[in-house]
Design brief:
Protein name: Diguanylate cyclase/phosphodiesterase
Shape: elongated
Keywords: Membrane, Transmembrane, Transmembrane helix
InterPro entries: Biofilm_reg_signaling, EAL_dom, EAL_sf, GGDEF_dom, Nucleotide_cyclase, Rev_trsase/Diguanyl_cyclase
CATH class of the largest domain: Alpha Beta
Helix content: 55-70%
Radius of gyration: 43 Å
Length: 753
């Protein structure tokens, strides 16, 4: 890239030097050789530039190369052509005209393919071209035509050359309204076109005076223009010309007006310059009419363009870019209009959420998730009536608002469930979707946002309890209570109101506690004890569960160390702590636990982390890595509530778990329901095959204990041996002083840190 820049600037230096020698006019032979070297050298430099810089779109550069070649050929044959008669005298002009056409076509290709046609720019170009054309015709072409010593066509062409240069400059200027304006290659092209214009104006001036003799000084702008064109092709930035993009330029910007206003004033300027007697009134009249028509079209176009921009901004502000559906703002506006005009008919909202959508994004990527949303939007859009508005609220949440009876909303919800039950085919994937749907009806003077929130609440209730739920005022009270719990829980974490209780895990063969599960408890200073069933889901939703989990872990390890130092900790006794999904996706968990074990001088076998089946079902690589790290510390891993999710040998074998806890739902029916016994038997067989320990939780009766013993389940947990209690009460009931071993003091742990 650096070599390309140096080459382009070297060409400029050589071109300036040769042009200076040419201006000295050392003789026709010397000047002919210099012009030939510079002309065909430009063509060679352009070919080298395209070959070295390899632009993604070579077409415009090939056209510019052909343009330069045509110009060079025209210069080479012009001397011969002037000595001929008839049409042969125009041979040089034909090649020059071809050069203009090829150059204009090359720049147009960049504009068309990369920037796109801009209506304002095209009309502005016509306005400026009309003004420039009138000047070229009045002051150059018509005076030249009236000179009788040469063919009128030759004089006319000489007068119109500046007009063609102006057209080229207008194309370059239009390209300048894009990101190309910052490229060195673009600036070289602009200089080249300016050089052509300066040279042609010079020849047009002497042509209007009857002189058609070549001059070294008049040729100088052409030579410098060729030099700039060669530098443009050699500079590495020429490759970026293929990827220029338009910039947001105002329809009536100062830059545009600086070109348009002088062009509009040309008829008046011509009249003033000629004293009111132009050479021919026809060009003046045609130009004036054309300028007026272009200006009117330009004004109308600007108004239409602004209107289109406003419509586009309004559409983007009220519609979802992915599905094209109305967004939440548009839906609430539509609902407000329905409430004011059709209140007697009733207004309802059906609010739905796609269950498991996050798994689609996690497993197949966001592209698959987007395709799923688009297909769901298409299907559901076909189910809604013309009077209804179907909108995407956010993420995987949609809503339909309409007026009518409640039965219409319920019927739509059923049709939605039926439609989504059909498989959705995506590239390489077949998905089945299920939606949780909430319905809210307008029953009082509430506004649109309130109605939408009510439907949202009903949807969340449906997610927890069933597929479709209709809002009732009790849900609003539930939300208020949830908010109160969240605020109080945050304060409780800050004020250390949480504490840890311990429930024994018993070896039924000896009746002694072999471990304890650490369970968080919360005693509110006003409301008293609050059940974990109430505050744990809130902690999970708000992210407080991570801080609470760290507190329970720290407190459990600290208590184990205290029991050990008091001589109460039996050999192989361990504490079991629940781990949340957030903790298991955090790679720092292993370091936190390792530090805790080292600080309290405990071996890894003194701790077991309990995880739920749902965490394993996600199959996140992060979770696998964290669990593997914990096992490397010697920590046990227990699957809690086993049997309630998608119990499978496959994930038990993939994850480094050590224990399976049979859910209380199956333990309750032991001795009563043969089905529960069969399930527990299957879990024990599966665990035994994988060399996993089995613990039964929720054991409350001796009958349940005896059935479990018959199934070879000797580790149990439940109210039969006691509820979870504070650490001092647990020690009194389930721990007993150990006999000191002089060879190995009880307060030291093997395997610590």
């Amino acid at each position: 890239m650096l070599a390309g820049r140096r080459a382009s600037y070297l060409v400029v230096m050589v071109g300036v030097v040769l042009s200076g020698i040419y201006a000295l006019d050392l003789g026709s032979g010397v000047n002919s050789r210099i012009s030939g070297v510079m002309g065909f050298g430009t063509v060679a430099a352009q070919i080298v530039g395209v070959w070295r810089n390899r632009p993604s779109d070579r077409t415009p550069w090939i056209l510019l190369i052909l343009s330069s070649l045509s110009f060079c050929t025209g210069m080479g044959v012009r001397g011969w052509a002037t000595r001929q008669s008839g049409l042969a005298t125009l041979t040089g002009d034909m090649f020059s005209i071809g050069g203009y056409l090829l150059a204009g076509l090359g720049i147009s290709v960049i504009l068309r393919r990369r920037v796109g046609a801009q209506r304002h720019a095209v009309v502005d170009g016509i306005i400026v071209a009309l003004g420039a054309g009138l000047i070229a015709t009045e002051f150059f072409a018509l005076p030249a035509v009236r000179i009788g010593e040469r063919p009128q066509l030759v004089s006319l062409l000489a007068g119109l050359y500046p007009l063609w240069d102006i057209v080229l400059l207008l194309l370059v200027l239009n390209l300048g309204f894009s990101t190309a304006s910052g490229l060195a290659s673009f600036r070289f092209i602009a200089l080249s076109m300016t050089g052509l214009l300066a040279g042609d104006i010079g020849y047009a001036i002497i042509g209007a005076q009857g002189d058609n003799v070549s001059s070294a000084l008049l040729d100088l702008p052409f030579l410098l223009g060729f030099t700039a064109l060669a530098a443009a092709a050699l500079h590495p930035s020429m490759a970026e010309m293929s990827s220029v993009r338009p910039r947001p330029v105002q329809s009536w910007s100062a830059t545009r007006l600086s070109l348009i206003v002088p062009a509009l004033a040309t008829p008046v300027a011509v009249l003033l310059a000629t004293g009111g007697t132009p050479h021919n009134n026809v060009p003046l009249a045609l130009t004036t009419a054309g300028l007026i028509g272009a200006l009117v079209f330009r004004s109308v176009s600007a108004v239409r363009s602004n209107a289109e921009i406003q419509r586009g901004l309004l559409y983007r502000a009220t519609h979802d870019p992915l599905t094209g559906l109305p967004n939440r703002d548009a839906l609430t506006q539509h609902m407000a209009e329905m409430m004011s005009s059709r209140r007697s008919d009733g207004v309802w909202v059906v609010y739905l959420d796609l269950n498991g959508f996050k798994l689609v994004n996690d497993h197949w990527g966001h592209e698959a998730g987007d395709l799923l949303l688009v297909e769901v939007a298409r299907r559901l859009g076909e189910l809604t009536r013309d009077s209804a508005m179907f909108a995407r609220i956010s993420g995987d949440e949609f809503a339909v608002a309409d007026s009518g009876q409640t039965i219409h909303a319920a019927a739509l919800a059923e049709r939605i469930q039926t439609e989504l039950s059909r498989p959705i085919e995506l590239p390489g994937i077949e998905l089945m979707t299920v939606a949780s749907i909430g319905i809210a009806l307008l029953t009082d003077q509430r506004d649109a946002e309130s109605l939408l929130r009510d439907a949202d609440l009903a949807m969340y209730r449906a997610k927890a309890e069933g597929r479709v739920r209709v809002f009732d005022s009790g849900m609003r009270q539930t939300v208020n209570e949830r908010v109160e719990i969240e605020l109080a829980l945050r304060a409780a974490v800050q004020r250390n109101e949480l504490w840890v209780s311990y429930q024994p895990i018993v070896d039924t063969r000896t009746g002694r506690a072999m471990g304890a599960e650490a369970l968080v408890r919360w005693t509110h200073p006003v409301r008293g004890p609050i059940s974990p069933v109430e505050f744990i889901p809130v902690a999970e939703e708000t992210g407080l569960i991570e801080e609470i989990g760290t507190f329970v872990l720290e407190e459990a390890l600290r208590q184990m160390a205290l029991w050990r130092d008091e001589g109460l900790l039996p050999e192989n006794f361990y504490v079991s702590v629940n781990a949340s999904a957030r903790q298991l996706r955090d790679h720092s968990l292993g370091r936190t636990i390792s530090d805790g074990l080292r600080v309290y001088r405990l071996g890894g076998d003194r701790l077991t982390m309990e995880i739920t089946e749902s965490i394993l079902m996600g199959d996140h690589q992060q979770v696998i890595e964290v669990l593997t790290g914990l096992r490397g510390l010697g920590i046990g891993l227990s699957v809690d509530d086993f049997g309630t999710g998608y119990s499978s040998l496959s994930y038990l074998s993939r994850f480094p778990v050590t224990t399976v806890k049979v859910d209380r739902a199956f333990v309750t029916g032991l001795g009563v329901d043969p089905g529960d016994e069969a399930i527990v038997r299957a879990i024990v067989a599966m665990s035994t095959a994988l060399h996993l320990n089995v613990i039964a939780e929720g054991v409350e009766t001796e009958q349940q204990r005896d059935v479990l013993a018959g199934l070879d389940v000797t580790r149990c947990q439940g109210w039969l041996w006691g509820k979870a209690v504070a650490h001092d009460e647990f020690a009194t009931k389930h721990l007993r002083p150990l006999v000191e071993d002089p060879a190995r003091p009880a307060q030291h742990e093997a395997g610590a840190a």
